[in-house]
Design brief:
Elements: H1 2-39, E1 42-45, H2 50-59, E2 64-67, H3 73-80, E3 85-88, H4 113-129, E4 133-136, H5 138-146, E5 151-152, H6 155-158, E6 174-179, H7 184-189, E7 193-197, E8 203-204, E9 211-217, E10 222-227, E11 236-239, H8 254-270
Parallel strand pairs: 1-2, 1-3, 3-4, 4-11
Antiparallel strand pairs: 5-8, 6-7, 6-9, 9-10, 10-11
Helix pairs in contact: 2-8, 3-4
Length: 272
């Protein structure tokens, strides 16, 4: 009888221990899930599309993104403060009045004043926070304008050359770019040149005094821009091509995404 009571007591103890261990495990799993969600990088996009999202996630599948274009400007700027990086995406022409050529508006294919206002505000906020910024196509153009530069309003008319920057089918439009030695971009891509996909009829004209070319096309138009004096400033890289439409193995696509994500992680860790 004593042995039977002892065995029953042990079984009760084991059951209680099992329940306690299960509860502890459940708490650990919940805390781990919460930590993972907290640790995920949030990137703000000036206007999102699946290609850009996939490009970022190819560098870090856990990345969280927010489409700032869907928010009022003031709210978008506030939300950017909760992000670890800004991606300025491709799109419409920047309004020429923003760089002193309002008379050339008729030569633009499409303009979006709201987007111009949004991106000018986002650029000011991001640079003020020293937040990593990467800019693609239109993004390069508006970065140059926001920092005091101008644009070539229409490449075929103003800079006629053998290089085709825009085709009817943008998926089959490519050209070579030459990377400038000893630039940030050269350090990222570890290449002298590469073939890129392109789709633009405008380009950086007079460069901002704060920027230098990081890459050129064959007609000497700037295809990449970065800080002239990067010390004390945020990570900034602008490219005229579309890395989000290129193979990750291309040195001017995958490595660019990975470095931007790395810089965003550094920014995030430094602001906790």
């Amino acid at each position: 009888m004593l042995r039977e009571l002892k065995n029953q007591g042990n079984e009760i103890v084991h059951q209680k221990l099992s329940r306690v261990l299960f509860s502890v495990l459940a708490v650990v799993l919940l805390l781990n899930q919460a930590w993972c969600q907290q640790a995920a990088l949030k990137i703000g996009l000036s206007k999102a599309s699946p290609n850009y999202l996939n490009w970022l996630k190819s560098a870090d599948p856990s990345i969280v993104t927010v489409d700032l274009y869907k928010l009022p400007v003031e709210q978008a700027v506030q939300e950017l403060g909760n992000c670890s990086g800004l991606l300025l995406t491709g799109g419409e022409d920047v309004f020429p009045g923003r760089y002193g050529k309002e008379y050339d508006t008729s030569r633009c294919t499409e303009i979006n004043p709201h987007r111009d206002s949004l991106e000018f505000a986002l650029i000011e906020k991001a640079l003020g926070l020293k937040m990593p910024v990467i800019a693609v196509c239109r993004g390069l153009q508006i970065i140059n304008v926001a920092l005091g530069g101008t644009l070539v309003v229409d490449i075929p008319a103003d800079v006629p050359s053998h290089v085709v920057h825009q085709c009817d089918d943008y998926l089959t439009c490519f050209h070579e770019v030459t990377v400038v030695k000893n630039t940030l971009l050269a350090g990222i891509c570890q290449c002298d040149s590469a073939r890129v996909t392109t789709n633009h009829h405008q380009a950086a004209g007079r460069l901002s005094s704060l920027l230098i070319p990081a890459a050129y096309s064959g007609d000497r138009l700037a295809e990449g821009l970065e800080w002239k004096e990067p010390a004390g400033r945020s990570f900034l890289l602008a490219v005229q091509w579309h890395p989000e439409r290129m193979e990750a193995a291309n040195p001017l696509s995958g490595p660019v995404a990975r470095e931007f994500v790395r810089q965003a992680a550094l920014y995030s860790s430094g602001n906790k």
